[in-house]
């Protein structure tokens, strides 16, 4: 008997949101196929809390691949461990979150298990004829592509924010799978880590993002953006020129040459909406544009637009949200 297998990615022992989305997709796919859902966790150690979360989101089994050599993410070692599991258990359906690590592992895993790969799907693959059809985001977020395969195993990666994490509790069991990476998979490995970001919400996982561009005139004016982000529980982002001149850190730069995101709400302040910027944000579910130029191209893709001076509009918006939250907090 086969199963749908989901890689439950953890950071410092915590299950990350992209994995909850992947488990949600996995549960849907397993139900459609009439198969069990299994999760797999990789690392040097794990906790029963991780298994419990996987069970809460629909996994019936949590397979643990634990080895001291898997303490840090090493792409070859992780892909080799997963491919050993997929081959040994004869698994035909695999889901990885389309996180940085998921994106790196998926192609290697596809090669080593002789699988087909759909990357960045936004819906679970549907049975069509003898194969499966899926919808994915393509062309740097500028288009949608439908992909089809009759080949198994089939590996898919789930695009961030495409599946709303949904609990579907199951009785779960744990199982250990023995694997030790060999030297060929550990040729390059991390020897030290220095965190450059704080405990802020990672941009790729944020449901709400407040972003600003050159219209803000200078780095000293970002306080109004940070206050709006704070009241909304949002991550902050920026356009490329803003990061290029050092007004904001590079890890906030979104667009074709930056990070590609698809939050539920993207608020763009003083950003013109150049095609290269839109390539990173156009698949956001709701876009709000604040710009003092009614002809700014960003308005063409906006769900809501405010024509006005950011320095007046943003503080008023922040204040209004703060008041609303205070009135509805109980
Ligand atoms: C190969 C290539 C790759 C690129 N990759 C990226 C990328 O990944 N991401 C990216 O962002 N860009 C990218 N760019 C750059 C892109 O083409 C634009 O130049 C850039 O996005 C413009 O940034 P901006 O909107 O902040 O600035 P501007 O184009 O200068 O726009 C500023 C906006 O602020 C508005 N404004 C001014 N004052 C106010 C005010 N007081 N209140 C409200 N609004 C105001 C203006 O009306 C204007 O619309 C790339 C370009 C190239 C050639």
Task: Describe the secondary structure blueprint for this structure.
Elements: E1 4-7, E2 10-11, E3 14-15, H1 17-33, E4 37-43, H2 48-56, E5 61-66, H3 75-88, E6 93-97, H4 100-112, E7 116-121, E8 126-128, E9 131-138, E10 143-149, E11 154-158, E12 173-176, E13 208-212, H5 223-232, E14 235-238, H6 240-244, E15 265-269, H7 275-281, E16 286-291, E17 304-307, H8 310-327
Parallel strand pairs: 1-4, 1-6, 4-5, 5-12, 6-11, 7-11, 13-14, 13-15, 15-16, 16-17
Antiparallel strand pairs: 2-3, 8-9, 9-10
Helix pairs in contact: 3-4, 5-8
The protein binds flavin-adenine dinucleotide.
What descriptive keywords fit this protein?
330 residues; alpha/beta; Rossmann fold; 2 domains; 7-stranded parallel sheet; 5-stranded parallel sheet; 28% helix; elongated; binds flavin-adenine dinucleotide
What report would you give on this structure?
Helix 3 (75-88) packs across helix 4 (100-112). The radius of gyration is 21 Å and the shape is elongated. The chain has a seven-stranded parallel sheet, sandwiched between helices. The protein has a five-stranded parallel sheet with strand order 14-13-15-16-17. Helix content is 28%, strand content 25%. The relative contact order is 0.12. The protein folds into two domains: 4-186, HUPs (Rossmann fold, 3-Layer(aba) Sandwich), CATH 3.40.50.620; 203-327, Rossmann fold, CATH 3.40.50. The protein has 330 residues and is an alpha/beta fold. The protein has eight helices and 17 strands. It has helices at residues 17-33, 48-56, 75-88, 100-112, 223-232, 240-244, 275-281, 310-327, and strands at residues 4-7, 10-11, 14-15, 37-43, 61-66, 93-97, 116-121, 126-128, 131-138, 143-149, 154-158, 173-176, 208-212, 235-238, 265-269, 286-291, 304-307. Flavin-adenine dinucleotide is lined by residues 213-215, 239-242, 255-258, 270-272, 274, 276-277, 280, 290-293, 296, 309-311. Residues 213-215, 239-242, 255-258, 270-272, 274, 276-277, 280, 290-293, 296, 309-311 line the site of flavin-adenine dinucleotide.
């Amino acid at each position: 008997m086969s199963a749908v297998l989901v890689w439950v990615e953890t950071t410092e022992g915590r299950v990350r949101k992209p994995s909850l989305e992947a488990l949600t997709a996995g549960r849907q796919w397993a139900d459609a196929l009439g198969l069990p859902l299994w999760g797999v966790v990789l690392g040097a150690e794990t906790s029963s809390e991780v298994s419990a979360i996987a069970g809460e989101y629909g996994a019936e089994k949590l397979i643990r691949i634990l080895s001291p050599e898997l303490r840090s993410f090493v792409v070859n070692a992780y892909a080799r461990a997963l491919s050993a599991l997929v081959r040994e258990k004869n698994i035909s359906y695999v889901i990885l979150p389309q996180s940085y690590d998921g994106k790196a592992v998926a192609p290697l895993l596809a090669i080593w298990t002789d699988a087909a790969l759909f990357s960045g799907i936004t819906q679970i693959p549907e049975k069509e004829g003898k194969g499966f059809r899926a919808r994915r985001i393509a062309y740097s977020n500028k288009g949608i592509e439908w992909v089809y395969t009759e080949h198994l195993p089939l590996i898919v990666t789930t695009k961030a924010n495409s599946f709303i994490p949904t609990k579907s509790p199951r009785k779960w069991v744990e199982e250990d799978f023995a694997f030790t990476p060999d030297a060929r998979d550990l040729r390059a490995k991390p020897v030290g880590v220095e965190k450059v970001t704080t405990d802020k919400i990672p941009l790729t996982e944020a449901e709400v993002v407040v972003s600003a561009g050159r219209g803000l005139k200078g780095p000293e004016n970002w306080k109004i953006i940070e206050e709006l982000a704070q009241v909304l529980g949002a991550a902050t982002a920026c356009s490329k020129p803003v990061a290029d001149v050092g007004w904001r850190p590079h890890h906030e730069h979104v667009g074709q040459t930056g990070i590609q995101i698809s939050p539920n709400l993207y608020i763009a302040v003083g950003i013109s909406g150049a095609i290269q910027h839109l390539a990173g944000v156009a698949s956001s579910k709701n876009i709000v544009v604040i710009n003092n130029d009614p002809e700014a191209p960003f308005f063409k893709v906006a769900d809501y637009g405010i024509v006005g001076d950011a320095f007046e509009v943003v503080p008023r918006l922040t204040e209004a949200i703060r008041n609303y939250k205070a009135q509805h907090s109980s």
